[in-house]
TrEMBL record:
Protein name: Glycosyltransferase 8 domain containing 2
Xref: InterPro entries: Glyco_trans_8, Glycosyltrans_8_dom-fam, Nucleotide-diphossugar_trans
Keyword Transferase applies: yes
Gene3D superfamilies linked: Spore Coat Polysaccharide Biosynthesis Protein SpsA, Chain A
Species this protein is from: Hippocampus comes (Tiger tail seahorse)
UniProt cross-references to SUPFAM superfamilies, sorted A to Z: Nucleotide-diphospho-sugar transferases
GO terms under cellular component: Golgi apparatus
Protein family per UniProt: Belongs to the glycosyltransferase 8 family.
Statement: the UniProt record of this protein carries the keyword Cell wall biogenesis/degradation: no
Coiled coil spans: none
């Protein structure tokens, strides 16, 4: 009997030990899933407390245009008292540079997280195109994959890196989206004061300039070629509607269709990022106040806006090939006001008096 009792005690102890090991293993796996999920890796640096209200801003930071991203962030941070949380999306090689640019400059006080984008998510979806290879940079497609960021916000702002915010970003964030609209954009026909400049540089303002209407597949979309287009470099997104409508899946289908049928290309007005957005959001987006997306500043080194008009603008966008950190370009003084020199020395301005 004593021997049997001892055996029972040993079995009970072994059972308790096995249960402990199973519980420990489950907790460890849950912790790992929390830290790394899908194609994205969270690389948060700044200590943050739980806050009741935050304005999440998603912006990409490529190694070659890091100074542009930081100028955008600086302009936002300097013009608001709101709690802004910057989600800075970059590639693996630029993570250290991104962190250094923030921590060794006046931006060290901002709230931010660095997110690493895995370009493999684009495999089999993007067609190589030599017309504008810069438009094929993996980070250009981050806006398609907002739910993969797992930022857990109901609403986010997405901004290209060639913008400057002159107003309070909270005003943009608080725009009222119409029911069942997953995003708000500025339409290309909403700003009469820009039409003369747009015509002078040959900018497209309708779907005709972005989709190849000679293709039957484009005609089958049922989109009037004269409908006003929009620029997807600045938008507010409702993440619940985005997920509910499976926007990312729709955008991926557009890319896959283009790979097979070549319904748009980077030789057309909007490169390879704008056309999928135009197709998926056609007739299903809220229109932004035009002063929150004054664009076309980068389409000509000679055509600009009146200074009186620029003072009223809440956001300036140098979309096009003539960027404000390069030369030639227009309205560079409004961009340079927010430029922060690169502590690593890699990013520098191109100016006439510069040997670089």
């Amino acid at each position: 009997m004593a021997l049997l009792r001892k055996i029972n005690q040993i079995l009970v102890m072994l059972l308790v030990l096995m249960l402990y090991l199973l519980l420990h293993s489950s907790l460890l796996r849950a912790s790992s899933r929390h830290q790394i999920s899908g194609q994205w890796k969270k690389l948060g640096d700044s200590p943050m407390k739980e806050i009741d209200r935050v304005i999440p801003v998603v912006i990409c930071a490529s190694e070659e245009r890091m100074g542009a991203t930081m100028a955008t962030i600086n302009s936002i941070h300097s013009n608001t008292n709101a709690n802004v949380l910057f989600y800075i999306v970059t590639l693996r090689d630029a993570v250290t540079l991104t962190r250094r640019y923030i921590e060794e400059t006046q931006l060290k006080g901002i709230k931010y997280k660095i997110l690493e984008f895995n370009p493999m998510v684009l495999k089999g979806k993007v067609k190589p195109d030599s017309a504008r290879p810069d438009l094929l940079h993996p980070l250009n497609f981050v806006r398609f994959y907002l739910p993969m960021l797992e930022v857990n916000h109901e609403r986010v702002i997405y901004l290209d890196d060639d913008v400057i915010v002159q107003g309070d970003i909270q005003d943009l964030f608080e725009i009222k989206l119409k029911p069942q609209h997953a995003a708000a954009f500025a339409t290309d026909c909403d700003l009469p004061s820009t039409h003369e400049m747009v015509r002078s540089v040959g900018m497209q303002t309708t779907y005709m300039g972005f989709l190849d209407y000679r293709k039957q597949e484009v005609k089958d979309l049922g989109i009037n070629p004269n409908d006003c287009s929009f620029n997807p470099g600045v938008f507010v997104a409702d993440m619940r509607e985005w997920k509910k409508q499976k926007i990312t899946k729709q955008l991926q289908k557009c890319m896959e269709d283009n790979l097979k049928l070549n319904i748009y290309s980077s030789a057309m007005a909007g490169g390879v990022v704008t056309p999928p957005m135009l197709i998926v959001f056609h007739g299903k987006y809220t229109v932004l106040d035009p002063i929150w997306h004054v664009r076309h500043l980068g389409w000509s080194p000679d055509s600009g806006y009146p200074e009186s008009f620029l003072r009223k603008a809440q956001l300036l966008h140098w979309n096009g090939p003539f960027k404000p950190w390069g030369y030639p370009a227009v309205h560079t003084e409004r961009w340079e006001k927010w430029f922060i020199p690169d502590p690593s020395g890699r990013f520098s301005l191109m100016r006439p008096e510069s040997d670089n």
